[in-house]
Amino acid sequence: MSQDDTKESTEILGEKKFSFPKPSSLIQHLSSIATLSDKNSIILDAFAGSGTTAHAVLKLKEFDNRNRKFILIAEK
């Protein structure tokens, strides 16, 4: 699974490497489950790096047309 995650992040961001890329499909699935009861959810990623959470939420929003939003906090 980690190889697919690295491939996905490289396709999106170029050659920049991340130590532990997360699969956007996993984040999308978890976000879907966590926001079942609220059509206007806000998802917080307090350790944003590559933007996987944003990517997953946007894909999920496109899929089911709910009004999810996200907040990313990145370290410099």
Structure overview:
The model has no long low-confidence stretch (mean pLDDT 83). Strand 1 (42-48), helix 3 (52-64) and strand 2 form a beta-alpha-beta unit. By secondary structure, this protein is of the alpha+beta class. It has helices at residues 2-13, 24-34, 52-64; strands at residues 42-48, 69-74. The N and C termini lie far apart (27 Å). The chain is globular. It has a two-stranded parallel sheet.
Task: Draw up the topology in text.
Layout: H1 2-13, H2 24-34, E1 42-48, H3 52-64, E2 69-74
Parallel strand pairs: 1-2
Envelope shape: globular
Report helical residue fraction.
40-55%
Along the chain, the helix and strand elements come as HHEHE
Radius of gyration: 13 Å
Give a brief description.
With 76 residues, this protein is α+β, with helices and mostly antiparallel strands. It has helices at 2-13, 24-34, 52-64, and strands at residues 42-48, 69-74.
Q: What characteristics describe this protein?
A:
76 residues; alpha+beta; 3 helices
